[in-house]
Design brief:
2 copies of one chain form a homodimer. Chain A is α/β, with parallel strands linked by helices. The first copy, chain A, has 12 helices and 18 strands. The two termini of chain A are 38 Å apart.
């Protein structure tokens, strides 16, 4: 049995007939190189958005099952077109819907999870020498209802297939050619990483990069190497894979790997809250019920039995968040509830960073030297995040990129 | 178990969000009247044409299996939207693809035939009080490949479901409000028929009316009454059903029911062909191989052992037909091969017409009175067709409509 390679093409990579033909050429090249190829495709360009608009023109509240039925057609279209394009250049290819490919999910319409995969239909087609094109982003429940995996779900489809078929690697083709040390629009000398660990990628993905976090988690768990590369071709991409040998591990250890940022951050602070059990729950439970997604949470002691509780939300959610927070403010005994909607955040990311002394100190001094005041600090195993004034975000990113010498290979 | 009603909505009846909502209102009204309702939908407006264009932008010769995968999405979209629209007005509705609805076909992609239907999934949903929306025009093979039934296939889906579910009737909503005694654009006082037999409808359908012939054949065989009506509502349609009682039979017997016509007819005549076995086969076999569809065939004796063989084809096929016919002309010993590409045809249709003396004579004299020369004549059990000069078609249709008093109820 030939080695299996899974290639995933995002919406922009199959955005029109010309791009589909170009992607088909790449698939054919890989196939002619001797690999058994499974292709996962997203819907063309803005097809999904157009289907959502169509649903909203019919009803203000589309039924989730029916919305999945509708949205799943976007991937079926690009799937069939890709198979046609491959046959046009002499390759045996066959398209499969999520259902036909044996991708079984739970019934959480719009954000279903893959709970099983019967590799038999895909294996049979591969064994017959065919290239198999699978519609990404979709599956089918036990009751034969069509489901979608939610935005970015095609990444998850690709990694799940790669894992189940024990693929050599999962190649993800998109409109960016890899993972960078920072956003090149902000940092002109940002450098493309040849390789990055899954956890590091997870932190970068959370802050705006293009792989869906669920797919990275799955790749880490099932040890699937992912190559993110440009569908335009010509340049090497970034390999997302955890180190497997000590040499590989040395290569990336104890280093800051990249700088990420976010704009449009708002902060709410409850001042002088009595420091007693149940306060956090009293605040965050109603926020969750109001569907407000809370990002960073920091609690600062401000006196002996009083504490300041701050958290950030997306600026768009501030109004809803404030409404809820002011309501509970009194009941938890806070003296004041204040907000600031002009913030951003910058983070440095790198596995093993916590074992490298002085990383945090270097971050804070670099920001100070750049005249950037730090409003809040949070840290995780592989990330340090500072909340700063939004107008200072670009300067902060550039200062950190320089301080950690990320432009140097 | 409540009586089952199948309602089919054509592409123009689900052409946009507004029309889908209007169709949903009608479905809901039928459901609230106590019937169990199965809805069959076509793709929205020109969606199928746009998908074909998309395929042709990717490859000059789309693979038939993949084209079916692609085209089937058109009906899935309107299917899901219809279910959403019904839920929006408080009805329990569920959409089903051909595969989900248990519609099994052979593997003749692009023109598949329904070979089986497992009513269990639809029945289960109906028993649960739901309206079931089934994607028309599609099914699935034994190997789970998606197929399409070819143009007009949604009619067949609707009638097949009505037959298998023993529906009370199959209602077909379209942009015309029924079957007329003649084309109202040609004959201003053409009258809508309240009722027509299946065979009569079959002849009318062959000459340009809107129901797919396969669906009428199926309806005749399985005794499914079809009501053709306008999706705009407000006026009664035409019931297509064979007479079941003597009274019903009397009502329609021995009457000419309608006049149909066609333009763009071309005729080829092989003159003075030796009248011996195998001549017709020698001519029509190569035509079939060249994919030329032959319509009317007439053989006129012109001498003792010589005959004239004439046949008609669509004008667009004349060039290909002539090429083939000239090639075989010599080998069958014809003296001459001539053609005329400026013809049309008019037909009168009516079951039991053959038992009504004088119908043919009245037709010919009406045409003569109108100054229409008859080029060829053919007859079937329920139809008499005359080939005439194309510029005389309108006058011929009007003359026949008047002669047989079709404007009178």
């Amino acid at each position: 049995m030939a080695a299996v390679v899974v290639q995933k093409y995002g919406g922009t990579s199959v955005g029109d007939a010309e791009k589909i033909r170009r992607a088909a050429e790449r698939v054919a090249t890989t196939r002619r190189g001797g690999a058994a190829v499974v292709v996962v495709v997203s819907a063309m360009g803005d097809a999904t958005d157009r289907l959502i608009e169509l649903a909203e023109s019919v009803t203000a509240a589309p039924d989730p099952r029916e919305l999945d039925m509708l949205l799943s057609t976007g991937e079926l279209v690009s799937c069939a077109l890709m198979a046609m394009a491959l046959r046009d250049i002499g390759e045996e290819a066959v398209s499969m819907s999520g259902a036909q490919a044996g991708i079984r999910t739970d019934a959480a319409h719009g954000r279903a999870s893959i709970i099983g995969f019967d590799p038999a239909p895909v294996r049979r087609a591969l064994d017959a020498g065919r290239i198999v094109i699978v519609a990404g982003f979709q599956g089918v429940t036990e009751d034969s209802d069509v489901t979608t995996l939610g935005r970015g779900g095609s990444d998850t489809t690709a990694v799940a297939l790669a894992a189940a078929l024990e693929a050599e690697r999962c190649e993800v083709y998109t409109d960016v050619d890899g993972i960078y040390t920072a956003d090149p629009r902000v940092v002109p000398d940002a450098r493309k990483l040849a390789r990055i660990g899954c956890e590091e990628m997870l932190e970068l993905a959370s802050y705006g990069a293009k792989m869906h976090p669920r797919s990275i988690e799955l790749a880490a768990w099932r040890n699937v190497p992912i190559l993110v590369a440009s569908s335009a071709g010509g340049v090497p991409g970034t390999l997302i894979h955890d180190a497997e040998t000590e040499a590989e591990s040395m290569e990336v250890a104890n280093k800051v790997r990249g700088v990420t940022y976010e704009r449009g951050v708002a902060r709410i602070t409850l001042r002088a809250v009595p420091d007693r059990p149940g306060v956090a729950a009293a605040v965050f439970q109603p926020l969750a019920e109001a569907n407000v997604s809370v990002d960073t949470i920091v609690q600062n002691a401000s006196g002996e039995r009083l504490t300041d509780l701050s958290f950030t939300v997306a600026r768009a959610d501030l109004r809803a968040a404030l409404e809820v927070t002011r309501r509970v403010s009194e009941s938890v005994g806070a003296q004041q509830c204040v907000s600031n909607d002009g913030l951003g955040q910058v983070s440095i990311v790198g596995a093993g960073m916590q074992n490298a002394p002085g990383v945090a100190a270097l971050m804070f001094s670099a920001l100070a030297d750049a005249g950037v005041n730090i409003e809040m600090i949070t840290t995780s195993q592989i990330r340090i995040t500072c909340i700063v004034d939004e107008p200072k975000v670009d300067a902060a990113v550039r200062a950190l990129h320089a301080a950690f010498e990320l432009a140097d290979d």
